[in-house]
Amino acid sequence: MRTFSLAFLLAISTVVGASACTNHATYVAADQAALGKVVVYRNGVAYYERKASVDGDKLAIEVPQDKIDDFLKSLTVTDAKTGLALPISFPSPGQAKNGKVEMTIQLPDKAHRDIVLSYVTESPAWKPTYRVVVSDTGKVDLQGWAIVDNTSGEDWKSVQVGVGSSSALSFRYDLHSIRLVHRETLHSQDNFAKAPPLGGSVHRDGRTEEMVLAAMDDTDLARPEGHPDVAGDVVAKASAEAASPAKTGGSLGAARQVPSSAMNKYRVARAAPPPGSQAKDEAAEDRKLAQLADQLKKAKRDVVIEGYAQAGESEAADKALDRANILRNQLIERGVAPAQVKAIARGVVAGQKAGVRVVAAPSATPEDGKRPSTNPDAPPVGESHFDSKTPMNVGKGTSAMVAIVHGQAQGEVVYLYDAESPNGDARFAFKSVRFKNPTGSTLESGPITVYGNGRFIGEGMADPIPPGATAVVPFALDRQVVVDREGSTGDRMSQLVKLNRGVMTAEVQHVRTTRLKVANRSHKATTVLVRHNTPKGWAISKGPKAVEQYAESRLFALDVPAGESRVLEIEESTPLVRTVDLRTPVGVDLVRVYLKTAKESPKIDAAMQRLLGLFDDMAKAESQIAHLRERGDEYRVRMDELHNQIFSLKAVKTGGTLMAHLQTKFKEMSERVQQTTIDIVGAQEKLMLARVKFQDELAELSLDNRDSKPAMAAMAK
Length: 717
Hints:
The protein is α+β, with helices and mostly antiparallel strands. It has helices at 68-74, 228-243, 282-299, 316-333, 585-597, 602-649, 656-700, 709-716; strands at residues 10-15, 33-40, 45-55, 58-64, 76-79, 88-89, 100-106, 112-122, 127-134, 139-150, 156-164, 212-217, 222-223, 269-270, 303-309, 341-348, 355-360, 385-387, 392-394, 398-417, 430-436, 446-452, 455-462, 470-476, 481-500, 503-520, 526-533, 539-542, 548-550, 553-560, 565-581. The chain has a domain at 228-265 and 599-717. 24% of the residues lie in helices and 35% in strands. 31% of the residues are buried.
């Protein structure tokens, strides 16, 4: 540990009210041992060092009853010359006088000797505070101060004061009380008849009790666009609509409502409920899913999503894993870190319906039985130790404000855009000071006051800053830097896992793109730092290099000239497993992009290219049918108008010429309707042929001689 030593400057000393020091107005007293050094820590204790010159064979010390345990736990008594430890005696519990325990240090003889005593007792934590004076030179003037409270009830006179790291551990432990150990009483072995030991199984059940966080039936799971459970019904309906003949009768003014494309995107839907069951409230289920996602994000707990299949269900293991992956994907889309959720298949389990369960992941217990680290991604605390070289006076019941660091450091004024922190802003960037810790110790967390141009310009709060590390502290929101934020998501197929009769299971890269347009409205060029969090399981696949990276947070720098804008685009991806129907646009689009970037095998690639061509033919035929039907509807509306006009002219004797003209128009519209109907039937025949060829190609398409189990197992992790 390096020590950053500076001359402590006593700045302010204020009297603390009597009520503030009532609980701490006790101290270790020794008439012959003067207090020479005090180091106050941030964890509720302080280190004291006393030196005594003794003429005799004893040194008496009085220790308050409330400090005896800390005192005994930490006390060291050594001969200053020889460094040898000296023995100590003290009375048993219950013999304290006036709340104090009298201790005696035994010396070998009555010769003159110097003794050093050191110990740790309870003390208020010191409080850091900082000042930063900014300029345009690339340097800042950094001042750090420690506020130390003397509530010991003893005046600190000519004492070397220091402050220490908050990483030091401290606890209470009873060493003063007498501790007896219970021992069993043994008897002579007079009994010859003994009971046999109890029988038992040598098998040990290592299972632990599961914590179930949520459970959903199969009907509760919302299927995404392109899923076979959704696509099957929709495609069948689209086929029936496309095959139905065009309307030629009925009301002439009734316009037929048809979608522009029967193969358009399918909305998210749930599996059809079994016969006799009531449909569940989709909004309520969506709220339940949102609550589960929020719960996992706040708790940061790892969970396992177990997928179950119904008894007698074909391909039970695959469908169980598909259900688990559906919920996992939905939780990830709602902001849950991919590393938090793992999908596995339980298959068919007696008494368990088809659906999913979300259970807390079992905590890993090391073989040595030791407790694992609390948080491997926790920020480093580091060590800090600032010593004074100049003794100072701090009266009892007073506080001292002393300087711990003062000097220049590398630093500048920047802007920080932080839309993801609790106190961040999604629209404007904060004016901030960026500086480097010039000391060999950690600068503890505390408030920072910022000055510039001879005036106060803001203040902020700093996290612990390790030695040599760079900190960015927001101190003002002047709204000079405006940020427009846009986001989008998409899927790119990266690996085929399973392909059977048009149903494809694939590993896809779920991509989310964040696009930031940063506008500098000030009259001065500036650097904007963008803070972006990347949860575990996501990887940045496209974007600039981060200037700072810590745990899940990254800082990206963007230089923006005065009055101009710059764009920052960050693309992240995480692997998901999706099951899609190749008859849907979602499935076809995934295959189309996949064939541009990857090759599976010549046979499969050729079959997929034929499928894409047939799908395009079907899309063209459907578009033609929809266009013809719209035209036919327009003709029927015009026929309806002409019919009404002809009916009205029958009451007019002089309308013969106009009547003949309208009747000719009506006949022309009727012929157009008939021709449109014929064209629709022809287009439907082409569509039907293309659809039959498409279905035939799908039935023959599969991954020949490929083992999909390892890939499925890898994606389930």
